[in-house]
Amino acid sequence: MEILAQYWLFILPLFVIQLALALTALVHVLRHPHYRFGTKGLWIIIVLLLNTIGPIVYFVFGRGEEE
Amino acid sequence: MNVLEIHQLNKRFREHQVIDGLELTVPEHAVFGFIGQNGAGKTTTMKMVLGLLKPDSGSITICGESVRYGETKSNRHVGYLPDVPEYYGYMNAREYLALCGEITGLPKKRIQERSGELLELVGLGSTKKRISGFSRGMKQRLGIAQALLHEPRLLICDEPTSALDPVGRKEILDVLYAAKGKTTVLLSTHILTDVERICDHVAILHGGKLALNGTLSELKEGHRQDGYALEFRSAEEAARFAECMKSNRFAATVAQEGTAIKVQLQLSGTLGGGQSIIGLLAHQQLTPVRFEALEPTLENLFMEVIQ
Amino acid sequence: MSGYYAFLKKELLESIRTYKLLILIAVFFIFGMLSPLTAKLMPDLLSSFLPEGITLTVAEPTALDAWMQFFKNTSQMGLILTVILFSGILGTELTRGTLINMLTKGLSRHAVILSKLTAMILLWTVSYMTAFVVTWGYTAYLFPNDVPPHLELSVFCLWLFGTFLMTLFLFAATLVKSSYGALILTGAVSALLAMVNIAPLAQKYNPLILALNNTALLTNAIQPSEMYSALTVASICFPLLIAGAAVTFKKRLL
């Protein structure tokens, strides 16, 4: 885990941001079960498993109309 | 002073002359019912009044100021409630009113005061949720609040009650009627009962111009047709009455439908005609279940006009 | 220009509440970090993909590589994402009808265009700056005392191009009602600029080079003075596009 120690300055913030995005998206998915397409389960998977891209796709394309 | 004056307004969409030499004046503090069939041009007219649509020719003035397409200066006198109001769903009611107030140029304190008052008035005072979670009725009510925010001289409502249930409808009509003292209301609708309920002026838009225009009482007076409706316990009784009535010298037409009879009288001496019916009933020993003088209804007037 | 300030506040509120700001900052932050990181790790990455026995001599990475990545990331993915995120800025308001109420209250049509443009440029600037600051920080950490020449100019050029692109997009949005249409139109103009770039004379004045020559400036392959014409053209286009958008929008039927 030498790389980890050496590059913690990178990995930590990256991790934090991705976590923040994923969590924000997740909370939104759970609280607002209206989506333009797809189901709640699908979006949970997308948001949690597809780093960075997942939440972005959700917020840009998958989120329900109003809001 | 007339709050709204429209002279010789014309608008054509492709082949169809939607508005054809329209003349309309709305006096101050009136509750003006603007009715017409679907597609008659009510919304088109309103859009032109608001400067959202350009007329082909004609003039529109609001409180003496001309209305010009694309400019919205005259709109500071107007509050507009569209038929399907759309708001920014991510805001809550207060935030939206604040935005409206700022755009109209109201000072911050005034916005807060008015928002509070109006939200109470329309029954949204205790809602903190975002507009995306509003029901249709709530959106309509917010619509009235935002339309009245800057205390406009003219409130224009496009089909304010069409999508509401009876409770919602009554609420909106009450609010509109209450607003009459402070402003003038122009509402378009095809729900005639609403018009009869709160409007004092009525205009029917047909064929691009006003087929009928005046205060509600004037119009009814002018179209008063003497007639009576009676209903009997059985069709036989009704038939018997009809037979006798036909030979009555006052009767112009007698129409029977099952147990119901409609009598149209020839002369406008209502009292005489009515009395003779009562005499006939007594003579024939008939007791009607219902005996009613026919008042001209808006529906009759409307049907007549659009023939 | 009634209502400009109020509507600008609303645009900014909207970008927060619709999570646009969050996404932009997060993504550009990541770009900012990835640029120096990938530059540093590139030799290791490359060699790990090569089969046994073959060694590749790759030059030791420098700050230049980091900034190269920065420009690549921000000018491609970054800009595209930003434009896509804002693609609905005018279209959705028109189709949904939220603008009508605002206009009837006295919001001037010019104010609509200007406030939306201001918001877009502000957000683009903030995001871009985020990436820049982060790259600067991490590059200073990984490649100390190594600052390529003309860095500020290069960074500025790309920023100006981004601003130009936003303005172009907004103009397109006033011409075409749908957001997709506006995107396609903007893309088409960009493609046109790319094609025109083949001619050396056009190259000099082409705003697109503000986004193409960034690395070249850093290696001194191109001199700053060669960018001035394009900078001027872009700067002139800017008010022209705004005027075009304002005029078109005023005429537009709702």
Name some characteristics of this structure.
heterotrimer, B: about 300 residues, alpha/beta, 6-stranded mixed sheet, 4-stranded antiparallel sheet, C: about 250 residues, mainly alpha, 12 helices, about 75% helix
What does this protein structure show overall?
- The complex is a heterotrimer of chains A (67), B (307) and C (254).
- With 67 residues, chain A is an all-alpha fold.
- Chain A has one domain (7-62).
- In chain A, 73% of the residues lie in helices and 0% in strands.
- Chain A is built from four helices and no strands.
- Chain A has helices at residues 2-6, 8-31, 40-49, 53-62.
- In chain A, α2 (8-31) packs antiparallel against α3 (40-49) and α2 (8-31) runs parallel beside α4 (53-62).
- The mean pLDDT of chain A is 78.
- Chain B is an alpha/beta fold and 307 residues long.
- Helices cover 36% and strands 29% of the residues of chain B.
- Chain B has helices at residues 42-49, 93-104, 108-122, 136-148, 166-179, 192-198, 216-222, 235-246, 270-284, 298-305; strands spanning 2-13, 16-27, 31-36, 57-62, 65-66, 78-81, 154-158, 184-189, 201-206, 209-215, 227-231, 251-257, 260-265, 290-293.
- In chain B, strands 6-7-8-3-9-10 form a six-stranded mixed beta sheet, sandwiched between helices.
- In chain B, β9 (201-206) and β10 form a beta hairpin.
- In chain B, α4 (136-148) runs parallel beside α5 (166-179).
- The model of chain B has no long low-confidence stretch (mean pLDDT 85).
- Chain C starts with a helix and ends with a helix.
- By secondary structure, chain C is an all-alpha fold.
- The longest helix of chain C is centred in the middle third of the chain and has 34 residues, at 109-142.
- Chain C is built from twelve helices and no strands.
- Chain C has one domain (2-251).
- The relative contact order of chain C is 0.14.
- Chains in contact: A-B, A-C, B-C.
- The interface between A and C is medium-sized, with 17 and 17 residues.
